[in-house]
Design a protein that fits this description.
By secondary structure, this protein is α/β, with parallel strands linked by helices. It is 54% helix and 6% strand. A nine-stranded mixed β-sheet has the order 10-9-8-5-7-6-1-2-11, sandwiched between helices. Strands 12, 13, 14, 15, 16, 17 and 18 form a seven-stranded mixed β-sheet that branches.
């Protein structure tokens, strides 16, 4: 990536002709996103650097043109809202083509998929690789196929962006001994499960896929769907897009959706419109899931063609048609497609979650038996379909060169390193070791003692010089020397990818085995290239002159974003000649007078420095999750304009250190010494050193601290004196301890600096938790805004430190950096530091002391937090004590002082304990007394600073507690006034209700309540100004003041008041004639004192203002500025002159501080007002309910008795009166004419048949034959109604029951009140006691359910309530008597009584409900306990629609004929006793058949039966006699 900005083409109309409305919309969309020029020159990684580097906070996009940069900026921070299409201004950009789905107030500019597609369409392959890598980490679906922007163009299959994606998963095979597998995802084979939509569907396909991939523990939002912000907007660019998402198996089965890793594909848009995309998915997919919205001819044809190419097909029915024709069409389609029933899932009769479960189950059944593929194979299939692949001819040429370079690596990495990269082998490591030993032993050894090492060195140099350029390196150098930068970029990318894929296939992820495996990366080839150049400086070799081009080549790579190895971690050496030569070439290419600052990160084993720097600045350092990397790498970053001004430089040199304290087995025993050398060297080069602690075990953490502390100690011996800052990638104490060490060592500064340090110690060295999504490579960990916010906070803090350094020291140029680099390496090589590289004594002592100090500080903070939780009680006690003593002064100030004293005393006591523990640690025998004396003062100062800091922290908590208490008192007073006003109104309403019969409804009560509520004095403070308004008015007053003093056209920019740490007078504030060297220093001191006094006067006035809790006012701001003006007039009397810039800066400083004070007071007033509003809003509803309840409680006391009587006593009395009535009526019916009819089922059947004979109604006979049970019910109903409609007089019984219940009511009422013993009781309890007494009298069911109503939840006067109840009971007795006297002729029949009587009668006569299997005659045996059934009268079969065999003539044959002789029916129906001879018991039905022969034939659509002649002679009397005989009736 180039250091210089890429110039885009001038704005002009896109040359492509717009031929349709869709093309026009696409063109408008690209212009709206300001990406139409990138269609010509795609965005690259260089442009990305400016996007990420300039980002200091997550600013909300102002318009759609900012959305692409916001997408990239958020993506690099792994922000969950990366795909959000929302921006501040939207509507005006849709003046040409505004989608109808967008509401007027919507902030979504486009569909999120269109944003993703637009970014991919306007970026080159190398930026797409980085985007894809991060989108996968963020758990987002990634485009695989990009549709064309314009019709004449072709879409693109994206393979190159996936080459660098890694994934890790747990294998499902128990035979695999490894815990998990890590592979390159582009070449990993796994089932591809694709989903497409056919026609319009009511179901959201993408939402269902998200549900399929989600688990109960974790939801997935990988695929954009219509419920997301902007997802409901039409897709313009992304229709036809194919996106993919990996779902990998996890160690925890609860987090695994499928039994093995799968790749999910998703086609956007209607599949019928995208033939090539669907063909590709059919060929590549193991399972094709089709969401079908219609099953028309077109859809069935497409499904048939897809079925021929797809391995497995699953159809999801999302159609709205539910008729029989559509169902038959679906079944026929399934048969034609030869699909099993389980391949069709109904999506219309269930919700999307249920549909997702069904689909997940169906896929789990298919996955074990489907074929696998990978993206490389899919790209081949795409090529066969004439789809464009993004890897063009240049890419393939670079691939061939990479193959040549890596030829032979398949035989083993160790062998390849030994044969093709031999210079970085043991010879080089041994030579570097001897050179360092030689430098450290100069002047200490006798000449004869140095003879042997010199000979060994010469032998190693000779061996080193005998190197011949290997085939791999020759090809590698030729490839990177090409003038085609695109081809070179592809080549380097292929080298990375191929090494990654090759090693991951053989790499175990277990920690022990990983340390034994040799590894190789692109940095090894670049290191070899540097060592080839280094050979020239080890001895004369004229063949090496051709290698002088290598530094230029490495410099060019560095400027294009390929990191330069600054320190060889394996050999523990700084390749001085190589790095110096490369940086010299960089120096030649940089603009003249370029300045820079240096940021170094110290990364320990398992830390993720490269990822953190990538998130902060968008750069790419060597990283690989399972590959061992050790050393330091550097990149030069060109800063955006906004940061250049802040840092006072043009470039930022980033140094990334990896692998410190690595347990790699290939290291020598001097590993700890080498780590110290590396840490010392890179930190000594930096302006700011970022120490990144991973989450490790205790033993490793201890060594990490030793290395970091030693680097900090040695940094005091270097020229640059870097600032140290600490971060951690998890919960670790190392960061706290290291921050404490930094603070302790910082106490060596002046007392003034120490005082300044106090106010921002926590901000300067605080550890940021940067646990990012790279914590594993499961591709399913998702992303969190916590990391995004932490990364931005860290970036802001780092740039603030650089800005502070810009005010104290000048930036360096690259030449000075190179010179300092050489000097520092000589110091490291010769070990010219006060602390030796192998010495841990000082570090261990400091770590132990700071551990004690950190633990003590943590305990102190916890103790004071616990103390602060009890402040409310302390404040209440002090308030009461102050009031008791008659002190009516400023109570809050007094209490604040007393609590502050208590807190200070508590803190002081605890700090003394901390000092005591430190003394114990200092007096340990193994500590160096002289060394401890050195840090004793620093530790005590640190404890004092902790004491001051905790005191400063506790004071706001005390103030807040007092404010809360005072506010609580005010709220209580307000509540008391409120309740008093409501009580007055309530009494007035009760008086009105008592003197009037008019009912006061709830609406009237609410109106009366609202009238009282609105009349309450508000006691509100004035509404404070909005924060933005305060800022605007302060700026206006400052501008007005400056204009009045002749300082016009000044650019006013107020700063954050919290970040201002005092005003510093600079040389630039003095006029030219006042800059004489001999007087300038004195003049600066005078002006500084004057300025400090001016600021102190301002702070005094602001403090007084805050005590009175006054908010911002223009007059007060003018008063402050007038004080400054008055002071400036005094300053004019001095012999020197100041520039207008001084006045401008002083007023800007004071206004910034004032603005911060106003904002603080504004926040206090706003919180107080919001608290009051919230309190009143919260209490309003509660008081309204209390008001309503109180009114009803008092008013209904006089009405509760009537309500109780109406709701409880009257239903109880009526139930008591009528409860025995139905049994009385039944007995009355059975005691009269109906007794013989309902005595048995046989008697009832006889009388029923007799009535049919006598009534002579064919319709009734037919009804009986069709359903005897229904006929029974109707006949019983007729009898009951007839009986009840007659004169059934039971007044005596009713009168008796009424008098009895009234007497019981009166007696129960008296007893309940007597048992209360005169004690006032809740009305409900009194009434419940009465109900219990009444029910205990027996034969009474009390209807007491209504007692749960709020009406009875009152405590009335006992005597009054008793009187009302007695009156109500008397009124009830009178009311019942009046109701019963209305109809003196017949008893009132309760509702439902008839049905009950019918059921009782039917139960007496229904029998066993069995019928003859031939003629359907009912069984006449009573009860249900008999095993054999018998009908007394069987019928000719023609009566129930039987015909003679092979004819349509009704049959006149009897059941007896069917049972005559030996026949099968006797065995088929053994539970029926049908006599073979009817014995003339069927004369009744012979008569009926003869009587209605013709009518039956018409009823059954048959021919009349051919009856014997003797049947026609049967009379009605004969039939009746026969019936009596059959039923054994004698009358």
């Amino acid at each position: 990536m180039s250091l210089h900005r890429q110039k885009l083409p001038e704005r002009r109309t896109h040359p492509t002709e717009i031929v349709s409305e869709t093309d026009r919309d696409k063109h408008i969309l690209l212009q709206m996103l300001d990406l139409h020029r990138q269609r010509v020159v795609p965005t690259d990684l260089t442009s990305m650097l400016y996007t990420t580097s300039s980002c200091l906070q997550d600013t909300f996009p102002q318009n759609p043109a900012e959305l692409p940069n916001a997408f990239l900026r958020r993506l690099w921070l792994h922000h969950p809202q990366t795909r959000s299409p929302s921006c501040e201004v939207v509507g005006e950009y849709y003046a040409v083509a505004r989608p109808p789905e967008m509401s007027e107030d919507s902030q979504c500019a486009i569909n999120p998929l269109d944003l993703v597609a637009a970014v991919y369409m306007t970026t080159n392959s190398f930026l797409q690789q980085e985007i894809t890598y991060r989108m996968v980490q963020c758990n987002f679906a990634v485009p695989l196929y990009l549709p064309p922007v314009y019709p004449e163009k072709t879409g693109t299959f994206l393979l190159c962006p996936f080459r660098g994606v890694l994934g890790r998963w747990n294998p499902d095979s128990s035979e695999d001994s490894r815990d998990c597998i890590m592979k390159n995802m582009a070449s990993s084979r796994m089932p591809l499960l694709s989903a497409v939509r056919l026609s319009q569907c009511s179901v959201s396909k993408s939402r269902v896929l998200n549900s399929v991939l989600g688990t109960p523990q974790k939801s997935i939002e990988s695929f954009v769907h219509r419920d997301m912000d902007g997802g409901q907007l039409p897709r313009i660019l992304s229709d036809g897009l194919v996106e993919v998402y990996w779902n990998l198996t996890q160690a925890d089965q609860n987090d695994s959706v499928f039994s093995q890793p799968v790749l999910i594909g998703n086609l956007r848009g209607d599949a019928a419109d995208y033939e090539k995309q669907v063909s590709l998915l059919c060929y590549a997919s193991a399972v094709l899931v089709v969401f079908c919205g219609n099953f028309g001819d077109k859809e069935r044809t497409l499904l048939s063609s897809w079925r021929d190419n797809a391995g497995y097909l699953i159809l999801i029915d999302c159609s709205l048609a539910r008729d029989e024709d559509s169902e038959r069409t679906k079944q026929r389609l399934m048969k034609d497609l030869e699909l099993p029933e389980e391949s069709l899932i109904n999506g219309h009769d269930c919700n999307e979650d249920t549909l997702a479960e069904k689909l997940r189950d169906a896929l789990n059944l298919l996955i074990p038996k489907v074929h696998t593929t990978n993206l490389v194979a899919a790209a081949g299939m795409a090529s066969d379909l004439n789809l464009k692949i993004d890897e063009d001819e240049i890419c393939r040429m670079a691939f061939t060169e990479a193959e040549e370079v890596l030829h032979g690596i398949e035989n083993g990495v160790s062998k390849f390193l030994e044969e093709q990269l031999p210079l970085q082998g043991p010879t080089w490591k041994r030579l570097c070791h001897l050179e360092k030993e030689e430098g450290r032993s100069q002047g200490q050894l006798m000449p004869q003692q140095g003879q042997e090492p010199t000979e060994a060195k010469e032998e190693l140099v000779e061996k080193f010089m005998n190197y011949n350029l290997t085939t791999a390196m020759k090809t590698f150098i030729e490839a990177v020397c090409t003038y085609d930068v695109t081809k070179r970029a592809y080549f380097l990318s292929w080298i990375r990818v191929k090494l990654q894929v090759m090693q991951l296939d053989k790499l175990s992820v277990t920690e022990q085995e990983q340390q034994q495996n040799p590894c190789i990366g692109l940095e090894h080839f670049l290191r070899e290239m540097g060592l080839i150049y280094e050979r020239y400086f080890r001895g004369p070799n004229y063949e090496l002159y051709e290698m002088f081009r290598l530094p230029y080549l490495a410099a060019e790579l560095l400027l294009y974003g390929v990191p330069l190895e600054l320190f060889d971690g394996d050999a523990a050496v700084f390749p001085l000649n190589w790095v110096y030569s490369v940086l010299y070439e960089v120096y030649r290419q940089l603009p003249q007078y370029s300045r820079m600052r240096v940021l170094t990160t110290l990364g320990f084993h398992n830390s993720r420095n490269a990822e953190i720097l990538s998130a902060l600045f968008g750069v790419n350092f060597p990283k690989w999750g399972q590959r061992h990397i050790k050393g330091a790498y550097m990149l030069l970053l060109s800063l955006p304009d906004n940061i250049r001004m802040e840092l006072d430089c043009e470039f930022l040199l980033l140094i990334c250190t990896e692998g410190l304290n690595s347990p790699h087995a290939g290291q020598e025993e001097g590993n700890f010494v080498h780590d110290n050398e590396l840490a010392t060297f890179v930190s000594g080069l930096s302006d700011v050193t970022l120490v990144n602690f991973p989450h490790d075990n205790q033993a490793i953490s201890r060594k990490n601290l030793q290395i970091a502390v030693n680097a900090l100690l040695r940094s005091k011996d270097t020229e640059r004196k870097p600032n140290f800052h600490v971060v951690s990638e998890g919960s670790t104490n190392n960061a706290k301890i290291m921050s404490c060490v930094i603070d302790v060592l910082a106490q060596e500064n002046s007392s003034a600096n120490a005082e300044t340090e106090l106010h921002h110690t926590e901000g300067r060295h605080a550890n940021h938790d940067l646990t990012g999504p790279w914590s594993d490579h499961s591709l399913s960990s998702g992303n969190s805004q916590i990391y995004s916010d932490a990364a931005l906070e860290l970036k802001q803090r780092l740039l603030a430190i650089f800005h502070e350094k810009a005010t104290t020291c000048q930036p360096t140029c690259l030449g000075a950096f190179m010179e300092n680099m050489c000097k520092l390496w000589e110091s490291v090589k010769n070990q010219n530091f006060s602390v030796g590289f192998g010495d841990t004594h000082v570090a261990d002592a400091l770590v132990s002391l700071c551990t004690k100090l950190s633990e003590g500080e943590e305990q102190l903070v916890d103790l004071m937090d616990h103390w602060a939780q009890g402040l409310e009680n302390q404040i209440s006690g002090l308030k009461e004590s102050t009031s008791f003593n008659g002190d009516h002064g400023d109570t809050s100030e007094t209490i604040l002082g007393k609590l502050g004293e208590r807190a200070a005393m508590q803190i002081s006591t605890e700090c003394e304990k901390i000092k005591s523990s430190l003394w114990d640690q200092l007096r340990q025998e193994d500590n160096d007394i002289a060394l401890m004396d050195t840090y004793q003062t620093h530790l005590l100062k640190k404890v004092e600073l902790i004491q001051q800091q905790v005191t400063l922290d506790i004071n706001p908590k005390i103030e807040s507690a007092i404010v809360r208490h005072d506010l609580s008192v005010k709220m209580q007073a307000l509540l008391t006034a409120l309740e008093a006003a409501l009580e007055v109104k309530l009494r007035s309403l009760l008086e009105r209700s008592k003197s009037s019969d008019t009912l006061i409804d709830e609406k009237q009560l609410k109106e009366e309540f609202a009238e009282v509520w609105d009349d309450i004095p508000s006691n509100y403070v004035a509404i404070p100004l909005d924060s933005h308004e305060v800022h605007t008015r302060v700026v206006e007053k400052l501008k007005e003041n400056l204009n009045s003093r002749g300082l016009k056209k000044q650019k006013i920019k107020l700063k954050d008041g919290n970040s201002l740490r005092g005003f510093t007078v600079k040389n630039g504030h003095f006029a030219l004639q006042s800059k004489m060297k001999r007087t300038l220093k004195y003049n600066k001191e005078v002006v500084q004192r004057f300025t400090n006094n001016l600021i102190q006067d301002y702070e005094r006035r602001v403090s007084e203002k805050q005590k009175h809790k006054e908010g911002y006012s223009d007059s007060y701001m003018g008063e402050i500025l007038a004080i400054v003006d008055k002071g400036l007039e005094v300053l004019k009397c001095e012999p020197f002159k100041m520039k207008p810039k001084y006045e401008m800066d002083v007023k800007t400083y004071i206004c910034s501080k004032a603005l911060e004070s106003f904002q603080q007071m504004h926040n206090v007033l706003r919180r107080e007002r919001e608290t009051k509003e919230a309190f009143l809003n919260e209490m309003k509803e509660q008081h309204l309910q209390d008001f309503l309840h109180s009114f009803h409680k008092r008013d209904e006391c006089q009405k509760a008795a009537q309500a109780f009587t109406a709701l409880c006593l009257k239903p109880t009395a009526l139930d008591f009166i009528y409860s025995s009535l139905e049994r009385q009526i039944l007995n009355d019916m059975l005691a009269k004419d109906h007794e013989h009819i309902y005595s048995s089922p046989k008697k009832f059947h006889y009388h029923l048949l007799k009535e049919l004979l006598l009534e002579d109604s064919f319709e009734k006979v037919t009804e009986y034959l069709q359903s005897s049970e229904s006929f029974y019910h109707k006949r019983i109903e007729h009898n009951v109604v007839e009986h009840l409609s007659g004169s059934v007089m039971m007044e005596d019984r009713r009168e008796q029951r009424m008098k009895e219940i009234c007497q019981r009511l009166k007696r129960s009422l008296v007893l309940s009140f007597e048992e209360s013993n005169g004690v006032q009781s809740n009305a409900r309890l009194l009434l419940e006691r009465m109900c219990v007494i009444l029910q205990n009298t027996g034969d009474v069911t009390v209807h007491s359910d209504s007692l749960g109503a709020p009406l009875f939840d009152i405590t009335p006067q006992r005597e009054l309530f008793l009187t009302h109840l007695k009156e109500s009971v008397a009124e009830l007795s009178l009311s019942l008597a009046q109701d019963f006297s209305v109809n003196t002729d017949a008893i009132e029949v309760p509702e439902g009584l008839s049905c009950k009587l019918q059921k009782l009668l039917y139960d007496r006569v229904k029998g066993c409900d069995q019928q003859c299997p031939f003629c359907k005659a009912p069984c006449d045996l009573g009860g249900t306990q008999h095993a054999v059934h018998e009908a007394l009268v069987h019928r000719p079969k023609g009566l129930v629609c039987y015909t003679i065999a092979d004819s349509t003539t009704l049959s006149h044959i009897h059941c007896s004929a069917e049972m005559a002789g030996e026949n099968l029916f006797q065995y088929i129906y053994p539970d029926w006793n049908i006599p073979a001879n009817s014995n003339d018991t069927d004369i009744y039905w012979k008569f009926m058949l003869t009587r209605y022969n013709t009518r039956f034939a018409q009823e059954y659509n048959c021919e009349p039966a051919s009856l014997p002649e003797d049947w026609k002679k049967i009379t009605k009397d004969d039939a009746l006699k026969n019936l009596k005989k059959a039923f054994y009736i004698s009358e």
